[in-house]
Design goal:
The chain has four helices and 15 strands. Strand 10 and strand 11 form a beta hairpin. Helices cover 12% and strands 36% of the residues. The chain folds into two domains: 89 residues, eubacterium ventriosum atcc fold, CATH 2.60.480; 59 residues, SH3 type barrels (Roll), CATH 2.30.30. The N terminus is likely disordered. The protein is rod-shaped and about 145 Å long.
């Protein structure tokens, strides 16, 4: 049995009338009223509008529905002091009750497949295609020693520094090893470029 809501007006008409139950009903308010779920064929009296406003139970939650059978409605009317002998229930055996009015159920959506895809994109000014950045070549170090150029040789030995002159047999940049020829002995040694026209010779480490 459904729990009965608050009955707004107790009805006790002595004139029989018909209540035609709907197949489907929409309840616009927080309470389900008799006029929401049925059509009333009652005599034109003060009791006719009162029965239409009779509150039966709370409306279902949004997005939910509730079924009400004809026999359950008879019990609800009896709890609201409506004499069953004065009422003739007809129509559907069960009414499906939805929350909200029928207008609220109708949602109009645009035909998205008819709208061009570009309508959803806010286009801005066209950007020119990016050109690839040319790969920069590594900076070439300057030649500090040139071939057949006279150079200064610093010979470093433990506790001794000897400076002599020689001739470069190849070009060399900073930090490179070049072959140096000593003018007196014609001996050739491998030296490291440390500055302009300057090389350095160190003893080999064991």
């Amino acid at each position: 049995m459904f729990a009965a809501g608050a009955c707004i007006i107790a009805c006790g008409s002595a004139v029989a009338f018909e209540i035609r139950l709907k197949d489907e009903a929409h309840c616009p308010g927080p309470l389900v009223r008799l006029g929401d779920i049925a059509e009333l064929d009652a005599p034109v009296t003060a009791e006719g509008p009162a029965l239409a406003d009779l509150a039966l139970f709370p409306a279902p939650a949004a997005g939910k529905s509730r079924d009400l059978k004809r026999q359950d409605l008879q019990q609800l009317l009896a709890l609201c002091d409506v004499d069953p002998r004065d009422v003739q229930l007809t129509g559907a055996e069960t009414v499906v009750i939805h929350a909200g009015s029928a207008e609220q159920k109708m949602i109009i959506r645009p035909a998205l497949h008819l709208i061009p895809a570009t309508a959803y994109i806010k286009s801005g000014p066209a950007r020119p295609p990016e050109r690839p950045t040319p790969t920069s070549k590594p900076e070439q170090l300057p030649k500090l020693v040139e071939r057949n150029q006279a150079v200064t040789i610093h010979s470093l030995w433990p506790g001794v520094k000897v400076t002599a002159s020689g001739k470069a047999l190849a070009d060399g940049m900073l930090g490179e090893a070049v072959l140096i020829e000593q003018p007196d002995s014609r001996e050739r040694v491998l030296a490291k470029v440390i500055g302009p026209q300057t090389v350095e010779v160190r003893p080999a480490t064991k």
